[in-house]
Amino acid sequence: MGRTRPVRIEPVPESYEQLLDRAARAWGIEPEFWDIWGNLHVTPAEVKRGLLGGLGVDASTSEGLKRALHERARKEWLRLVAPTVVAGIGRPVEFHVNAPAELAGGTVHIEIRLEEGRVVRFELPLGSFPDTGSAEIEGARRMRKTVQIPEPLPLGYHDAVVSLGGESGAMRLIVTPERAYAHPALTAGGRAAGVAIALYGLRSDRNWGCGDFTDLRAVADWVAEDVSASFVALNPLHAIHNRRPFNTSPYLPNCVFYQNFIYLDVEAIPDFAVSRRAQALRAACAGEIEALRASEFVEYERVAALKTHFLKLLFVDFLHREYRAGTARALVFKQYIEREGELLDRFATYCALDEHIHRANPDVWMWTEWPAEYQDPDSEATRTTARGRWRAVLF
Q: Angle between the 286-294 and 300-318 helix axes, to the nearest 10 degrees?
């Protein structure tokens, strides 16, 4: 009987299509989806290539894909911990530690600054946690350990620093509710009916070409009194830039804490009734407003420009008639500013800078394209400009 010769199994070379699929999965591109009519759509290769290209991946050749996948894996394994970990409240917070093999039995140091400001620290024996993978990276072996925080963390966005030997890594730990809030009447098996609307799409014979809060009040009354329904579901109302070709989507906010001024009913603002200039301008703009109402599509940019013009007129009247006189309305406004604090101050400063810079250079659309000295809200240039343009910030 002859000797059995050892058999070496060579890896099967991946085709371009297989590499493209693997890269798409790695970068989070869905291979398929079902539409609302129950039809399955498979993501075509050209769409995967386009999306990967947009993410900075050379997907034009097999070699390009191999290099991108190799570099992604290299960076992932050389990073001690992932940049972000999400866990449900009440569940153990687990995360991977990619440790050099010689340190896989050492002590891992974890310092967590909770959202509330308190700091908690842990020293855990890495060898007591299970191995969940390994890789040979740049001639050195790295072991993946799944580490578990020994005590529950509260809800919130927490910042952690993990150290092992001479390596350390920063990580955001996000602890979330198990599910979104539901009204007790619904969780007990109850039902509710309502109407979903896109507020900007409401048409009326009094708005300025875009649904506003006065329209919303009318819809809410109609839903409650005539339809006998329980709620009105709305599109997001947060602040956007209201300008083309970018930043007119309600799902692309520049701030989620404050609302889009385009939904204000200018004529319902108290200052409008006492501003002769605003009322004269309203009469002069009657044709423009009628054209905006008749437009097939919502003209975000034109509506926003028109309302900004009026709001600035009303602001000047408010500034001279009430703010400087310290009236009751002025006091309410000042209390609001104080209550909102730094968050409002930074947003107002951002808006004033954005208007100023975009007017000077219409090709600059985003803050990442601003001069470097203005990209830091705490820079001396930002503070100096904000002080010099205090009226614009206050507006």
A: 140
